[in-house]
Amino acid sequence: MRQVRPVFRFKKIVWWSTTTCDYDCVYCSPRDKDGKYRWPTAEQKSKLIDFIKHNSKEVNKNRTQLDIMGGEPTLWPDFMNFCEEASKYTSVFLSSNASRTERYYKNIKPGVIDDLFLSFHPEKADPEHFIKIAKIMQNKTTLRILILFFQPYFDKCLKFYNQVKEMIDNKELDIRLTVQRVDVSGEDVRRAFLKDLNKEQEKIFLALEDVRSKFSPSQRSKEYNKIKEKYHSLESPAFLVDNQEVDGQHFRNSKLNNFIGWDCYVNEGNVIRVSADGSVHPSVCGITKLKYNAYNDDITNFIDEFKTLSPVTCDRLCNCATDIKLIKKVNSLAK
Question: Is the full-model pTM beyond 0.85?
Answer without folding.
Answer: no
